Amino acid sequence: MTTPTLPRLLVIDDEVQIQRLLHHTLGGGEFQLHAAKTGQLGLGEAASLQPDAIILDLGLPDLDGLDVLRRLREWSTTPVLVLTVRDGEEDIIAALDAGADDYLTKPFRGRELHARLRAILRRGRTATEPAVVRFGEIEVDLAARLVRRGGQELHLTSREYALLCLLVQHRGKVVTHRQILRELWGPNAEQKTNYLRAYIIRLRQKLEPKPGAPVHLKTESGIGYRLMAD
Amino acid sequence: MFLCIGESQTMNLAATSAPHRDGLAGGNSFSWEFTRPMPVPPPSSPSDAGPAPAVPPLRSRFDGPARSDWREYASVIAVVIALTAAGTQVPESYYTTVGLVFLLAINVMSLRVGRGPILTAGVLLALIWDYRFVKPYYDIGIENLHDALLFIIYLIVALIAGQFTTRIRAQAANERLLQERATALFQFTRDLAEAKTLLEAASAAITQMDELLGARTALALASPTPATHLPRFIGSFFVYERERQVAMLALQQRRPTGRFTDVRLTSEGYYVPLLRGDQAFGVLGVKVGPHDVLTRGQRELLDAFAQQLALIVERDHLRAASEREKLLAASEKLHRALLESVSHELRTPLAVITATTEELAEVNTPEQAELVGEIRAAGQRLNRLVGNLLDQTRLESGALKPHVDWCDTQDIINAALEDTQEAMAGHPLTVQIADEAALVRADFALTEHILSNLLINAAWHTPLGTPVSLTVGIAAEGTRLFFQVADRGPGFPKAMREQLFHKFSRGPAAPVGGLGLGLSIVRGFAAAQGGEVVLDDQPGGGACITLYLSHTVSDNPPPE
After folding, report:
1. Which of A93, B174, B241, B464 is spaced 20 to 30 Å from B36 by Cα?
2. What are the residue ranges of helices labelled H in A6-128?
3. Taking all residues of chain B, what is their mean pLDDT, rounded to a whole number?
């Protein structure tokens, strides 16, 4: 019925309707889906099935989703997309800190879910990064450390480039403020979000067609940034 | 013991100046409410503070070695007379034996009486012996060297015996005193330890001290830090305002004040602060009669009591603090669990509806797509409603913890616009952000919510096609950031302005629908991050709502 080349997805969610909905949205031949209704079952399945990615609901009946994530991360690096109705930033940041690769809040759009899954699966699958990443009219040549806009070379300062590079490496996925600040300004600068904001504004001015309404460098309110790549 | 203040059944032993009583979150003030029925004071005036304690006080025992009184002198003189009388009955040649008997008597007596009587008896007996029993009789003179030596040796032995036994007696008395103090302190500590509440401990302490010292004691417990306010005393004497000030001095200067000290010597009472580490927990006041004194021993004992009391009070503080903390944590956890469960239960079906309609919209005919669009719009409206209800609950339960951080103003506005895209569809919107307000400190989610609510409000209450403007800037004084949403609708009726902020309150011209939570949440979210919301008329017609937040200027990133 299924070909072995399809990526295996494990959905850990106790809601039958969500399970069915995910089957409908994701079951169109792109993925091979498996379901687990509790955290315990999910952990067992994750071990025996060796899925390519896991969709984890944070509100489970037996275990807290965060605990499931922490236990999973003790032995597995399988990409995890957290699905939650909790819209508190703290919960999402906690999940990302605990090792989740990305998150999606309910209610979600099918297209969004596909995009997020593709982004987290890319990390699991490709061993080598492409040398050139394109989004919109922007071209980032990671090997040559060059950024072009519509074929024209752009001048970026070294920190602007480092920031862009970090987002490009995680393209399609959320990168938290803390992650960026630590990477760019060191571990003591985790509170210096104003620096980060200032750099994002500069980058948007250089990269976005309309800096006031960004389409590539998206803000995830209270959490971080996401580079929308093609 | 009895308590001198008892107008109410509820006695505030340590009320703070501003007690917080808002439910479980009782603030940080330490206060004990004594709701146990308290003994009612007798009708006597507070100055003569009721009957003396029934138990005989231990005061004499704490006064050090007993002073010799007239009775001791009388008894030694009686012994001297008896010995003299007995001595005259024996033959004159036995005079050395008489002398030895006298010496023996001195030694025996020294075990019973003090130094003064012993010396008196010694000298008296020596003189009588010399006068009556040594030749020449009835004369002070002594005939031979042998008798003179006997007399001198006798006198020296008598004196040494007197001195020696007195010292032993003093030592014994001292030891007894120490032992009694240890016992008193032990009993005091035990009584305090047995007390289940702070009130019981305080009552026990006051009773004990009353009995031990034969004095009247009163106790006031202050709020821990800063020790600036001393609540009323409870205890067996009334502390007048003037005396309270002396007690306050003890608290502030962290040393005993009042009578028997060099601070306010003329006060009626002696006040000892309850010290523990660098904190002062209250004051212990002791009052004795105008002719009585508190000896050094008694004052030392009081110090020890005060230390014990301080320990008890501190323990109680710590216990109260930890209990309150536990309670708060438990209530917060419960609230959170409840909110999360409700949120989960309501949002999951909504998520299914929204996602399903989206799928349907892509595959069906235009008419069907329109119907599906209706479902989706309803779903979105319901979702927003659930969000508002949960937000309101979160606000009211105090579970809302603002996270103020640097935000890109454009980001906040973009998020709000995305959120209100459909509601704002029929209203041309102009957005203006002042350059100096590009980077602001705010809670992103709360501010975005406020703006969404204000935009939806504007769209909802104004005719289709009328413009809405959103302006962000810094108010003239430079310390306040404002977000202003203005429309060209009918504006707010003046009389209703304040009421509009109340939950479930809706304007008279509001179209059907909506719960009237929008502005209530707006105000709550603004207050949560230290801001305020002002309703006004727009010049030229329409309403204008402004959110004010405090503004901080960002420092520039370090140059590369």
Report:
1. B241
2. 16-26, 39-49, 65-75, 89-97, 110-125
3. 77
Instruction: For residue range B307-337, list pLDDT tens digits in order.
Output: 888 888 888 888 888 888 888 888 877 777 7
Which residues of chain B neighbour A86 with C-beta distances below 8 Å? 340, 343
Q: Does B554 touch chain A (CB under 8 A)?
A: yes
Q: Which helix (H) or strand (E) holds B313?
A: helix B296-363
Residue A219 to residue B408, Cβ atoms within 8 A: yes
Tens-place pLDDT, residues B18-64: 333 333 333 333 333 333 334 434 333 334 434 444 444 444 444 44
Question: Among partner residues B340, B383, B444, which is closest to A59 by beta-carbon distance?
Answer: B340
| Rounded average pLDDT over B203-213 | 82
CA nearest A26 in B: which residue? B359
Contacts of B140 (CB under 8 A, 6+ apart): B127, B130, B131
How far is A106 from chain B, CA to nearest CA, in Å?
A: 5
Q: Do B351 and A193 touch (CB under 8 A)?
A: no
Both B361 and B409 in one domain: the answer is: no
| Contact list, B355 vs chain A (CB under 8 Å) | 21, 25, 107-110
The CA angle A6-A11-A17, to the nearest 5 degrees, is: 115
In terms of residue numbers, what domain contains B254? 11-44+214-294
Write out the residues of chain A at the interface with chain B, using a CB-CB cutoff of 8 A: 15, 17-18, 21, 24-25, 59, 85-87, 89-90, 106-110, 157-159, 192-201, 212-214, 219, 221-222
The answer for residues whose C-beta is within 8 angstroms of residue A179's C-beta and 6 or more apart is A166, A224
pLDDT at B224: 56
pLDDT surpasses 90 at B549: yes
pLDDT > 50? residue B391:
yes
ipTM value: 0.85
Highest mean pLDDT among B133-142, B395-404, B469-478: B469-478
Mutation target vs A (from B341, B345, B348, B452; most A CBs, 10 A cutoff)? B348
User: What pLDDT is recorded for position A4?
Assistant: 55
Residue B418 forms contact with A (CB below 8 Å): no
pLDDT at B432: 93
Tell me if B54 is assigned to some domain. no
Q: Looking at CA atoms only, how far is residue B415 from chain A in angstroms?
A: 8
Q: Which of B411, B554, B557 sits opposite A219 (nearest CB)?
A: B411
Question: Coil, strand or helix: which one is B482?
Answer: strand
B64 Rama sector, left if φ>0, alpha if ψ -120 to 50, beta otherwise: left
Query: Do residues B360 and B436 share a domain?
Result: no
Share of chain B above pLDDT 70, in %: 82
Give dist(CA B433, CA B484) in Å, integer: 10
The encoded tokens of residue A177 equal 């403020």
Residue B441 shares a structural domain with residue B536: yes
Which domains occur in chain A, in start order? 8-125 (3.40.50.2300), 132-227 (1.10.10.10)
Q: State the SS3 of B172-199.
A: HHHHHHHHHHHHHHHHHHHHHHHCCCHH
Residue A64 per-residue DSSP state = B
**Residue B304 belongs to a domain:** no
